[in-house]
Each structure stands twice: as C-alpha cells, then as structure tokens.
Amino acid sequence: MQASTYGALKGSVGFGVQNQRRVSGFGELRNRTSTVSRNLCVTDRSTCCAGLSLSSAAMGAKLAGLRTGFDGISMSKLKARSVQARASDGDLENLVPSKPQGKSSGTVLPFVGVACLGAILFGYHLGVVNGALEYLSKDLGIAENAVLQGWVVSALLAGATVGSFTGGALADKFGRTRTFQLDVIPLAIGAFLCATSQSVQTMIVGRLLAGIGIGITSAIVPLYISEISPTEIRGALGSVNQLFICIGILGALVAGLPLSANPLWWRTMFGVAIVPSVLLALGMAASPESPRWLFQQGKISEAEKAIKTLYGKERVSEVMHDLTSATQGSVEPEAGWFDLFSSRYWKVVSVGAALFLFQQLAGINAVVYYSTSVFRSAGITSDVAASALVGAANVFGTAVASSLMDRQGRKSLLLTSFGGMAASMLLLSLSFTWKVLAPYSGPLAVAGTVLYVLSFSLGAGPVPALLLPEIFASRIRAKAVSLSLGMHWISNFVIGLYFLSFVTKFGISSVYLGFAGVCLLAVLYVAGNVVETKGRSLEEIERALSVAT
User: Fold this and answer.
1) Which residues contact 395 (CB under 8 A, 6 or more apart)?
2) What's the whole-model pTM score?
3) What does the buried/exposed string (b/e) look like for 339-349 if buried means 16 or more CB atoms within 10 Å of the residue's CB?
4) Element (H, E) at 24
C-alpha cells in the first residue's frame, strides 16, 4: 500500500548533441531528396511540454536570455533508411532552417500559465492523499483495512490510465481548449465527492473521477503548451509543466500541515482542488485555440487570429507558411489507433513508450519511498523536512533543465540525467552494503538520494513529455502521446503494486543496483534512438522525420 501511495505521489511526470555544421536549409533537402514524396498532414496533435514556473519578472528575464536561433536536428544513429536523406555536404543531423526565426511579440505566457493550472491539479491530486490517508481512514472506518486504503490510493492511478488514453482523442475531436473545459467536470466532481464522502465507496468513486481528470490533463497540458509555444522558447515553456506538477505536490504537502491540530482538515484538502478547476475552465474560455488544430480543421481565419494573439501579427504569414508547407500535397486522413503500430510510425511511437517505461523503471518510486528512512538514518527525523529537501531538489533541477532545454537540447539532458541517476543509484546501493562505508552510510545515502532526484529532474522527468509531441507526426501526435502516457500510468501502477515484494525478496541494495542497470540501458537507448529537436518548428521536425523514415 505504501508503495502504491508513492506511486500516486510520483506520477510524472518524465534529447541533445549540438551540431555545428550548417547546410543550406531544410527546403534544399526536400529538393535534393527523392524520398520526400510524403508530407504528413498537419493536425492539431499534441505537443507535450513540461515547464518552469517563475514569477512573471523572473520568467521574463529567463526567456529574454534564451536563444532565438536554430541548431541542427540530431538524428542520432538512424537506421539505414535515413541514409537516403543526405544533402551534399551533410546528413539530416546537421540540417538547420534556411531562415532565421523572428522575435515573438505575442502574449504566450498568460495562456501557458492558464494551462499550467492543469499541471498544478495533476500534482495536487497525486500528493494530497499522502498526508490525508491516515486521517480519512479513521474518519471513514477503514483504519485497519490496508486493502481499502490501497484502493483509495490506486483508484486515482486507474482513472488516470483511462483518462490518458482518452485525452488525445478528445483533443482531436473538440480541440485543445474545449477539452480542458470538459476535463474540469471530472476534476471538480471528483474533488467534491472526496471532500464530502461519508463512505469509502464514495471516496473511491471521487478518486477515480479525479484520476480520469488528471489523466486527460497529463496528455493535453504538454500538448497545448507545445503547440502554442514559439520555437525558440518551446523547450523552456515545455519544462513549465513538470515544475508546476512539482509545485502541486508540494502544495498538497503544505495543505496537510494543519491535520495534526484538526483531524477533519482532510476534507478541506480535497475540496480546495475545486478552485483551480473552476479557474482552469474560465481561463480556457479566454485562451486561443491551438493554431495547428484550427488549421487542420480548415478554420484558416481562426488560425490566423490565434497566431496573431500568440506570436504577433508580424509572424502570421511565417507560421501559416510553415503549416501550409507541412500539409502541401497531403491528402491523408486522420490516423486511427492501429496506424500507430504500422511500419511507418511504429519506430517513433516505440521511442515514446520506451522513454516513459525507462522513466518509471529507473527507480524514482524506490528513492522517494525510502527517502524518509534514509534521512532518519542521517539524523533528519522530520518527515516534512525530508519531503521538503526532496521537493526542493526536484524543483531546482527542473528550473535548471528549463534554462538549458533550448541551449543544450533534449537529448543531452536525457543522457546526463540517466547517467547521473545510474551513478546515484550505485552510490545508494554501496552505502547499504559496503562495510568500509558504514561510518558514512547516512550522509552518503542522503547525498545519493538528493543527487538522484536532482538528476531525474534535469532530464528523465521533464524531457519525455516535452519531446514526444515534437517527434510525433501531426496526424498521429495526439493519439501517440496518449498511448505513451498510458504506458506511463500502467507502469507506475504495476511498479507500485510489486515494488515491496521485490524489496522483501532481494533486498533494497540489490533492487537499487538493478535500477542502476536500467539507467545505464536507458543511456544506451537514448544515444542510439532519440533525435534532437531543439530550435526547430514542429513542422520542420515532421518533414525531417518523414524524409528519414
């Protein structure tokens, strides 16, 4: 049950070698390459991002420092077919746009902020049960029933799995902003049922509904942010999602502080989630729809209006040209679920699923679950202090990742992240077993835990949700993101279910050593299969990958 509790808390959410050579531009490659007969139709598909929440002034200063130029798209070790896509003086990895990107004068940040209310709700619903479980169990008469307590925790994960698979289809059918508004229904009703429940059955139904809500949120928040963000700062804004999830979890921790003095406070903890749900619905009513979705629906004038609002009128023609170029000559219908498993798309879809599997199998559940006992061994007896230290490392790492996302690239952050996680896991494992390290085991275990969480937040946490919508073709983007996030929730649930059994059978040190091995496998996988996307528009990435495949 405790492992499941952590599985609920974790939830999140989850690539870059810079190339210096520049060739004459992507348009030239299309003219030189015989394989560019297939342009994918641009749809509304999601572009998952994660992000950085700073004060408005700090965010402005941060974004002002980000580069607006493009670097090459790195197609590391693509298979034999990608060799066809070579220009005369370089391959696909070294391509850069032929035209510079202009500075945005639109107003993207307020709408990213509105979308991030969904990320806060995501984190809050994940974390709220941690402090409240003991008190609600007594109030609802299940204090001695570990199975029902487990259901209270796990119902959220079950609902999130369902929601993640449906979020993409809803976003395709109704649009991004309308899906946000529809998503408020299960989020608000779920919070209300939890806050007013008089039986464990009502509590479980409320948690299930809230889970469906955060499952949909997990798909559409990064999707919407990616599709409305200017190319030059898409990585930074994409990282905001992850940071606000962390803030939501920390908010749930803070909300639980009055519980010791007021055992019925747990009802207020659940009920307060209704407020950001309502604000999300109202905010999305005033937010522009994704221009990519509008264009795919044939709503050209509305797409131009949305572009003007987001980027400024001086960039309307530029963005419309990109959208038109991406769909030129394409008459392909919208992709179905089975298209994701076709030979045309399976390789890139499998990358998305693999990244989320590696994210979960790399051991984040174990580290956070055992963080309290680890800190106690080092003399830190306060659970709040231990949680605050882990949370601070997570927030700090995500903030750093946000500032580096558009400079170092996604792939390099993933490699650094998984490498650091492997080293941290090895340190944790040795601190529990090596007798020579016994006098220093407490401090070493704390250092390993903090370094692991920091490494996770630098890449493995925020990058997958940002990268996947970028590499998925427009006609499969929303469904492919939903499939990948579904794998995230399923693996989260399974790991939470069986983690304690593995610890009991093999010991925590051996389990940590196994996690270190998974992290090293992730490094090898990322190096050989993940592409770099920094500095390129979604349409340019799509055209590049259509050539390579």
Assistant:
1) 243, 246, 247, 250, 457
2) 0.68
3) bbeeebbeebb
4) none
